[in-house]
Amino acid sequence: MTESAKVDIQGLDLFYGRFQALKSVTMAVRERKITALIGPSGCGKSTLLRCLNRMNDLIAGAKVRGRVLLDGRDVYRPGADVDELRKRVGMVFQRPNPFPLSIFDNVVYGMRVAGTHNRGRLREAAESSLRGAWLWDQAKDRLDRSALALPLDQQQRLCIARLLAVEPEVILMDEPCSALDPIATGKIEELMLDLKERYTIAIVTHNMQQAARVSDFSGYMLLGEMVEYGSTGKLFTRPEKKLTEDYISGRFG
Ligand SMILES: Nc1ncnc2c1ncn2[C@@H]1O[C@H](COP(=O)(O)OP(=O)(O)O)[C@@H](O)[C@H]1O
Ligand SMILES: [Mg+2]
Predict the structure, then answer these.
(1) Count of domains in the chain?
(2) How many angstroms does the Cα of residue 82 sit away from the middle of ligand 2?
(3) Which residues of 181-200 are buried (b: 16+ CB within 10 A; e: fewer)?
(4) Which ligand is nearest to the CA of 173?
(5) What is the band of 57 on the pLDDT scale with cuts at 50, 70, 90?
(6) Is-above-0.85 flag for pTM?
(7) Which domain holds residue 210?
(8) Residue 238 lies in a domain
(9) What whole-number distance in Å separates Cα of residue 82 and Cα of residue 44?
(10) Residue 50, ligand 1, Cβ within 6 A
(11) Does 213 map to a domain?
């Protein structure tokens, strides 16, 4: 069942102080597939996503129990290299967050931090990452311009390019389209389908249609619990749980 799991989440609890935000969540994120997390606001989707690259470490008072195996190794094991983890498991946020730098400097930011300064190599990586994020044509003649001058959807694709430049294996996306209009959203969705040829993707979305359109697997969460998890086709047409059915049919949430 978990053989092709890129990330295997086992009995994961998360506490913010005394508040338990995740309750024994078990789920396998399959390699080179898109896994969507759905559920009403506040049910723990972002919290769960952030556990996959230990972004919750940055929140004072957050405590994790259970296991998150990346290629079979627990990312929470003592001595795990968190910087390395965040390179392998990159994240895209709700609001595009380019740095106040040029387009070029944004894309190669992570490479420079990792010690690459060879102009030719940076240039090459910038081009292939921008191509990978479907931004090359728009950006190639203005690589030295400020990233902040780009329209929002291009800023979001720039943030994706910035991840691609450090060659991640898993890409986490937390409501990546919530600031975008329907056309820009459609473009990001198409891009995701293209990216899954090479990367494992986990996405949080409050948009059930989006989950149904792009994902291979979906998990429905409620109050910190994984109510139902399985193939998207099945979850949206023949859910096993009454709670799931109520949610996807719009009776709740
Ligand atoms: N930094 C935090 N400190 C305390 N509680 C938090 C924090 N972040 C989220 N929570 C709480 O954890 C629960 C899950 O939040 P979240 O993962 O953001 O849900 P979702 O992404 O599904 O909307 C909510 O009740 C929220 O209020
Ligand atoms: Mg959220």
Answers:
(1) 1
(2) 22
(3) eeebbebbbebbeebbeebb
(4) 2
(5) very high
(6) yes
(7) 5-97+168-248
(8) yes
(9) 22
(10) no
(11) yes
